[in-house]
Amino acid sequence: MTSPRFPISHRSARALAVTLCLASGLALGACGAGSDRAADSATTSSGSGLSLRNSTPGPAPTPTAAASSSSGNGLSPLSSKAPAATPAPEDKQTKEAWSAPSLKFYNEDTSVWYQDDSVVNTDAVSENGNIEGYRTHNGMCIGYETRDISERIHDLGLDDDTMSSLLVPVTDSVISDYNETGRETLDLVRDDGGTMEGYSVTWTGTFNYDDGTSESVEGYKFARAVGDAGLDFSVEIICSSGNNVSADQWHTILSGIRIEGLKAGKMSS
Predict the structure, then answer these.
(1) Where is the signal peptide (predicted)?
(2) Residue 91 falls within a domain, yes or no?
(3) Bridge partner residues of 184 (DSSP)
(4) Residue 59 forms part of a structural domain
(5) What confidence tens digit (pLDDT) does each residue in 86-135 have?
């Protein structure tokens, strides 16, 4: 099996953009190292999300963080001309606006992969989410971490288990013949409550290049939706067939991620 074509220099002139349309229809935006970009709403976008470009491996980056902003307005103040009255409980609920949580995301272990935003097309994603690109040190795999925070996710009315199950399949537009070969529940990503439970899948598929050629790929994906926080979070790695990271390496990647400001808990009560 030859090494994958996308990390090798003779592919460097070929840039390929793909749409990152998650199962819940999120449009994801860019988040560079050390940025504090917000993700407070979600829209559907046809913008590109991933591009396969060669880059020279650099030193492992320092941990980065991206924080969302709060957009809630709370209860509207009563007019001074209105008679003093205590609203009924249902009125309070309808007037209460959802406030986006203030979350920060850190990647604290770069032993398997390092941040390389050249593998993501940061110019083609919306401002309603975040995406960071990664590349393994051996050059055989690329990947990305995405997160979206929005009131729309909060208001879906689905339980976390259902939303996470819908979010975890690989839906990148350049991947065809997707086959999920395994699924499990992992609780390795850290948050303020300890660890965050989510679904992890192993998968195989075909990566379709813009020149009409293709190659077999395999990888992992982890996903967790947290309805109370309005959060969709996922991590994906794509490797040339036969060069996938090991389960231990995948667990190392997930264990190196920490979310500050969140206590996700179990997916189902």
Answers:
(1) 1-29
(2) no
(3) 200
(4) no
(5) 555 554 444 467 888 889 999 999 999 999 998 887 664 445 568 899 99
Question: Quick check: is 87 in a domain?
Answer: no
Beta bridge partners of 130: 147
Tokens of 149: 């925070």
What Rg value do the Cα atoms of the chain yield, rounded?
20
Which amino acid is present at 268?
A: S
Residue 137 near residue 112 (C-beta atoms within 8 A)? yes
Q: Which amino acid is at 269?
A: S
Give, in order, the Cα–Cα distances in Å from 133 to each of 29, 158, 257: 12, 29, 14
Overall domain count for the chain = 1
pTM for this entry = 0.69
Q: What is the DSSP letter of 253?
A: H
- Give residue 23's Cα distance to chain centre: 12
Tell me what percent of the residues of the chain surpass a pLDDT of 90: 50
What per-residue confidence (pLDDT) applies to 182?
98
Amino acid at 241: S
Task: Please check whether residue 82 lies inside any domain of the structure.
Answer: no
Strand partners for 50 = 18, 120
Residue with token string 């998968």: 203
Kindly state the DSSP code that residue 107 receives in the 8-state scheme: E
* Of 136, 150, 117, the residue nearest 220 (C-alpha): 136
Q: Are 39 and 145 in contact (CB under 8 A)?
A: no
Amino acid identity of 255?
S
- CA-nearest of 109, 9, 7, 32 to 63 is 109
Question: Within 10 Å of residue 123's Cβ, how many Cβ atoms?
Answer: 10
Angle at 29 between CA 28 and CA 31, to 5 degrees: 130
Which residue range is the domain that position 167 belongs to?
9-54+64-69+99-260
